[in-house]
Amino acid sequence: MLEAVFLGIVQGLTEFLPISSSAHVRIFGEFLPSAGDPGATFTAIMQIGTEIAVLLFFRKQLLAIVSGAVKYLFGNRVDKSSDEFKNAKLGALILLGSIPIFVLGFLGQSFIRDNFRSLWLISFTLIGFGLLLGLLDHLGKKQKTLEDLNSKDGLIYGFAQSLALIPGVSRSGSTIAMGRLLGYKREAALQYSFLLAVPAVLGSGFYELINSFSEPTNSFSLIETGVATVIAFLVGYAVIAWLMKFVQTRSFMPFVIYRVCLGLLIIALLSSGTISS
């Protein structure tokens, strides 16, 4: 139970930062008394907690998106300059951007589970995508807002998010980096990253939760997994509030440096035989 609580804290702290929560859960699992991989199922279910934090934090915007979509689809004709139309459009783009990760995640789930949990791979993706995030954040034009989002950008965002199927890439990191490449402001890229993750993470989490009733979640019981999920929710909500303020005045460079240092540390520990890949 204490291990589950600890990993819930790790999940909550790292889910929204561009440093890869799945990588951290995988890495810290090696240093716990059980000394093993907590597993993709346990990780996916915990992410339900952090996504509920997103639903709560952005509840007004999400309700506006749903309301705008309902009015556009079933109500009177909506003026394209109105807030209702803009919210409905954003909702449609979130669904469009979710298609790549749903398709790739469903088709490649077995391959991902069997081949993407190696700490060697995670260490290199932490470093490589960390440097890419730093470069694109620096070169970003910082012009576009969410109102400038179109179907082309939404789909490109979606393919960037699908890279997060590889532990170490980071869902927020990949989408933020792509957003910066496309010319979006940090706040806009971060906010869309949060919203885009909702369908994918909740879908994956509940899929794994349903399967967990017939298949074990590695070394954790359903009760322990549930406790970890609640902890992840509480910690994750606080992290969202902090990060939204942080990006208004700071770059992502501290996270880039952290990713590179962590990746190099894991490589050193693997090379010395201290931990197993």
Question: What's the layout of helices and strands?
Answer:
Layout: H1 2-14, H2 21-29, H3 40-57, H4 59-74, H5 83-107, H6 109-115, H7 119-139, H8 151-162, H9 171-181, H10 186-212, H11 222-246, H12 253-271
Helix pairs in contact: 1-2, 1-11, 3-10, 3-11, 4-5, 5-8, 5-10, 7-9, 7-12, 8-9, 9-10
Low-confidence stretches: none
How many angstroms separate the termini? Answer: 25 Å
Which radius of gyration do the C-alpha atoms yield? 19 Å
Biggest β-sheet, characterized? none
Helix content, binned percent: over 70%
Query: Please, what is the average pLDDT?
Result: 87
Principal-axes shape call: globular
Brief description of this entry?
By secondary structure, the chain is mainly α. The chain is built from twelve helices and no strands.
Walk me through what this model shows.
It is a single chain. The chain has 277 residues and is mainly α. It is 73% helix and 0% strand. Helix 3 packs across helix 10 (186-212). It is globular.
Jot down its keywords.
12 helices; single chain; mainly alpha; 277 residues
